[in-house]
Design brief:
- By secondary structure, the chain is of the alpha+beta class.
- The protein is built from 10 helices and 5 strands; from the N terminus they run αβααββαααααββαα.
- The radius of gyration is 17 Å and the shape is globular.
Length: 190
Amino acid sequence: MRLAKDDFEYVLGYHAAPMLLGFKTANLITFRKSRFADFDGMLESYTPCFNCKGISVFRVSEKNGLVVIMFYRVDAMERDLKRKEAREILRRCGYPMNGSIFEMLEHLRERVESEKTFPHEIGLFLGYPPGDVEGFIRHKGKDYCCCGYWKVYENESDARRLFGIYDSCSRHFCRELDCGKEFAELVRAV
């Protein structure tokens, strides 16, 4: 079964509403390209909307008919990756510390391709707290205090509050689409 433009918008709304509404730095979404008549053309048709709202699109991985796309806000990502704790993790993972966001994303793509999985520091690009990314690396994904959009190792109450906001964003965005609101009207510029 082929999916339509409305289905694409609903997938974006469900999986990326926190970023689309300006509450989160980035979201990753995996698409099976064959589910859409012209996936690349359809994605390209959203470029004006995304550009106008401050959202960029980066293909993290593409193989076997699946494409993993990061939808992100450049300013928020730059801010997140400049944090001292984030920079230390990225430095240890070989990222170009004086590079642009695009160079950092290119290095991330190389690491995904070479490791055949998502390297743990990807959480920094998605806006996860550096302490939780470090905790995940140190504890190998175990011994976390709670799990939601990511595994939490520090500040559980703050994380739970954010998870609630993110859940509300997804419900709101999808409900508004169901009520006939235009996708471009729902996406916020920040």
